[in-house]
């Protein structure tokens, strides 16, 4: 049986790989389009870097942090990533009409997987009892 630390670490790795592949497909879409590539301001690039660093750090943190810090970090990081995905892949594109029609299905597909995964992370951390952590 896998312990919760290992399970959370594996879920973060799964989420990270989905984030990365969704970004790769988005880059293929930008490169293949006739539109000029968007130039993001430094604050947007920093925000993207922070959002990508969270799951990277949580892969390791989930295995190394003690119970209370681990539980809290997973709940907070999971909530941040869930809200980011919902706002960037669902709310903003639908509200602004910023979808590329041929990418719509893949954004919904990856966004759904990412949201489910981070929601499971939050649930696993929320329901994690100190009994397992002490054994």
Overall average pLDDT? 86
Q: Can you give the helix content as a percent range? A: over 70%
**How many strand elements?**
0
The separation of the N and C termini measures 13 Å
Radius of gyration: 17 Å
Q: What overall geometry do the principal axes of the alpha carbons give?
A: elongated
Helical stretch tally? 5
**Given the helix and strand composition, which structural class is it?**
mainly alpha
Low-confidence stretches: none
The total tally of domains equals 1
Strand content: under 5%
Largest sheet: none
Output the helix-strand order.
Answer: HHHHH
How would you describe this structure to a colleague?
By secondary structure, this protein is mainly alpha-helical. The protein has one domain (4-29, 44-126). 81% of the residues lie in helices and 0% in strands. The protein contains five helices and no strands. α1 (4-32) packs antiparallel against α4 and α2 packs antiparallel against α3 (67-96). The longest helix has 30 residues, at 67-96. The mean pLDDT is 86.
């Amino acid at each position: 049986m896998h312990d919760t630390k290992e399970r959370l670490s594996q879920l973060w790795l799964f989420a990270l790989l989905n984030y990365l592949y969704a970004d790769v497909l988005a880059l293929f879409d930008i490169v293949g389009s006739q539109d000029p590539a968007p130039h993001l301001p430094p604050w947007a690039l920093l925000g993207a870097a922070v959002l990508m660093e969270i799951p990277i750090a949580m892969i390791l943190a989930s295995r190394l942090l003690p119970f209370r810090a681990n539980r809290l970090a997973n709940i907070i990081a999971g909530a941040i990533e869930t809200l980011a995905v919902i706002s960037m892949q669902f709310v903003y594109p639908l509200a602004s009409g910023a979808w590329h029609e041929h990418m719509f299905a893949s954004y919904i597909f990856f966004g759904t997987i990412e949201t489910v995964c981070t929601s499971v992370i939050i649930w696993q951390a929320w329901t994690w009892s100190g009994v397992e952590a002490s054994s």
